[in-house]
Every structure is written in structure tokens, then in C-alpha cells.
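Here is an idea for our session: we take a single protein and study its fold together. To get us started, please write out a protein record for me. Once you have written the record down, we can walk along the chain together.
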Amino acid sequence: MKLFLFILFLPVITFAHPISQGALDVELSPGKLHIRARVPVEEIFIANAFAAGNATSLADARKEHGHYFLQHFRIIADGRELAGAVTGLTEAGSNHIVYELDYPLPAMPGQLSLRQNLLNEFLYAPGNPWEATFAVRILKQGQLLHEGLLLTSKQALTVDDTTTGHDRRRMFGEYLRHGVTHILTGYDHLLFISALVLATVTLWDLIKVVTVFTLAHTITLTLSVLGIIHLSSAVVEPMIAGSIVFVAITNIIWPQRSRGWIRLATAFFFGLFHGLGFAGGLLDAMEGMGSIFIGVAIIAFSIGVELGHQIVVLPVFAGLKLARSLRTDEASRNQLSLSMMRIGSLLISVAGTVYLVAALK
């Protein structure tokens, strides 16, 4: 039966990214806290496929996941954890399910904390677990208090009755941190940028290739936000994984083509697909948010992505530069550069192949 469910869910999950992104509406009212959780269908498949579930139909899988969601989602009001129940389930298009959850609320809390660890026990690829993130709105008796806040397994969300209103500064910081985390835990993007850096010799080489890559993924991220361009994840995810393998193999087999305009064109071309990868799930999570808040989230997230890149790029480049400087003559420095590029690229190509297989299965 699991095979049957796998086949039914296959069109949704085939090219999934390891970050599943949804949205939460949290409403406080006298005697009750109500949550409307908009969850991607892929999240239901992942939990059902990897956990020891007993679902024998799609309807059963959705109900079973509702209980899984409840078990991995915590609400703490004024230091006391609330106990809730799934009270409703509806479809939201072909790609999302909406769960309604209700929690008895003895009194209006002064402080509310949301925590979750959904999907963390399942691996997308070695060393890279699945991650569920949510854009959160908080309402009190129909009045919007907070919008665009971010909840991840690594980043709990806490609000209190003294911080009402749309806190753009807090939102900017949360999405900035999310962008950094997205890169530092997004090994596919890190492998690609590392393969590019391995072929750089001078600081000017590094600046050019990083600038071109940044320009490319910024273009597609922006166009996605504006709704001008959309490309199926069935294309985007394999292209991201394939970009790692392509650049790494080029470094190994044709090292003379690893620099110059060919490398810049390669960084730009594949950077377009990486930008679509950055944008895809993030836009789903921000559905329903005001345009100003979407703009703040995208700018902060993009800056975070670049900070994440630099956290990796600069130490790698500095290490390569230091190793080359230890050689006394130009010939030995060139030979060392070639060896480091080929050995590092070989390892990256192996890891990239793992991601390509994961994207295609």
C-alpha cells in the first residue's frame, strides 16, 4: 500500500527541495486558541513514506499526518504547554492541505511561544535532513497583531502582549537569519559555489564569479516574486543538482576552461536556476501577506543568502591562497592549484551526484 501511495504522490514529491514551507494563522479568542495550518502535500508524503505509518489511502495519510503534525508542534502560553486536537481538514488546491487545530485556552496569555520539529528525523540526503518552515500570522479576536513572522525547527517564535503591530525590523532579522541558515544547511548550493571558488586564483577572479552568480539568482528571485516567471520544480531541482556535477567535472577534465568568460557564463546560467530554487517555497509560505511585508522578507532573505555564501566562500578562498603562497616558485604553485582543484572537485562531483539521484528519484 505504501507503494500505491508513493505512486499517487510522485508528481508532487519527485523534485522536492529539502525545505517544505507552509503558513500558519494563529487566532486567540476567549477560551480557545485556533490554528489554521496550510501544509504542502509533499510534507504529508515524506512523513508517511519514512515513518511507520498505517495509512492505506490518501485520505488516511492526510488524517495520519494531522496527528503527526500535532505531536511535533508545541504551543506554550505563559510557560504552560497547551494540549490541542485536529478539528478539521480541507484541501487547498492540488498542492496543499489545511489543518484546523484547536487548543483550550484558560485565559488570554501575556506571552505565546510556538515551537516545532516537523520532518527533522527524515533525511533528504546524507547529512541534510528535511526541514519544515512556516510564515506565521497572529490574530486576537479577528485583529491582526503580527504578520510575516517565521517559525522553523531551529528558530522558535515567541510574542507577548507588549509587542503588537507589524514589526518589520523583527521580520527583517528573522528572514535575514533564515537566508543565512538556508545556505549553510543547503549543501547543494554550497557545493556549487565551492566548485566555482576552487577554480579561482586571484581575488578579482573570485569577485567576478561571485558577482555573476549573485546577479543571476537575484534576477530570477525578483522575477519570481513579481510573478513574471515560474518554472516547475521538476526542472529546477535537477538543474541545481546537475550544476554541481557539471562545474565539478569541468574543473577535473577541462581545468583550462574553469576560468574566463566560459566559467562566468556557466555561473550565470546555473545561477538563474539557483535563484528559482531560493524563491519557490518561500513564495508559497508568504501567500496572503501584504506586498510591503513580502518585499521586506525577500530583501532580508536575499541579503542572508549572500552572507551565507560569503561565510563559506571567503575562508575557502583564503585557505587556497595560503596553501599556494607556501610554494616558492610559480610552477609548483600552479601544480598545487591544479591538484587542489581536481581533488576538491572530485569530492564535490560525488556529493553532487548524490543530490542529482535524490532529485530524480
